[in-house]
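Q: I'm writing up a methods section and want to include an example of the input and output format. Could you take the sequence below and give the corresponding predicted structure tokens, formatted cleanly so I can copy it straight into the document?
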Amino acid sequence: MASGSKRLILLALTANVAIAITKFIAAFISGSAAMFAEAIHSVADSGNQLFLLRGEAVSRYAPSVKHPYGRGMAIYFWSFMVAIMLFVGGSAWSIFIGWQRIYHADEHHSDGLVFSLVVLAIAAVFEIFIAFRPAVKEFNKHRGSRGVWRTIRSSKDPALIIVVFEDASAVVGLAIAAIGLILTEVTSNAVWDGIASVLIGVVLGIVAFVIAREMKALLEGEAATREDRTAIRVAILSVGAVNHVDRILTMQLGPSEILVNADVAFDDGVDEVAAIDAIEASIVAAVPAATRIFIEPSR
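A: Here is the clean output for your methods example:
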């Protein structure tokens, strides 16, 4: 995990803990299902940041006899747990609360509207300026000239993607909750409050699905990015003793760890041991994340 991503996690954790407390207070005073859904959302996000920090710590464990390539892929497992937490602790719960609110709409009361809106405004400031804006800035730096969706699909740093998605869904959720509270007050119909809670749950469900799909691919042993694979091939071919490359296999072992296995044909009469050393040095210079390199001479 990049240091920038860890900083984003800590910022998001700090913001979400503070926001969750104020949302629960506002939900208790107003009785709003949407506000309660938002409070649950912040609690789920806080738990997710703890999952990511745990994954980051485990992924840095040194290689051992039991884990000869290290435990870099642990970050992908804990990121998958984030998707489960978002779906069960956020999406499903919010939809359930919203449905209950719609079903019992006649029990509506409008206490604490102003306080709830103030809480949502403060939460929005925290989410946008402390968590979301730094996350987008880091994401754009990582993205470069690539498209947003392509960057999401090719990124091997789950922390960055998760924080961006969580913060974006938090901002959308805050807007939905505010609209639901206002419509409930204006129409004196708590159905709007329930609908807002359900919509928040739907947003969280979509985010959970996208994160789960991306983490599933990485847990299954996804190859390095196309750019890294190309750079590795070019690095091998740049060594003078190489005749051609038969096959290159790569696997992402962690956000900054790549396993490389290449079948390489050498020119006749070359010192293969020295040539392999040169290839490994060339690959590392081109792709520093290539931490496990295995070169097999082709016959």
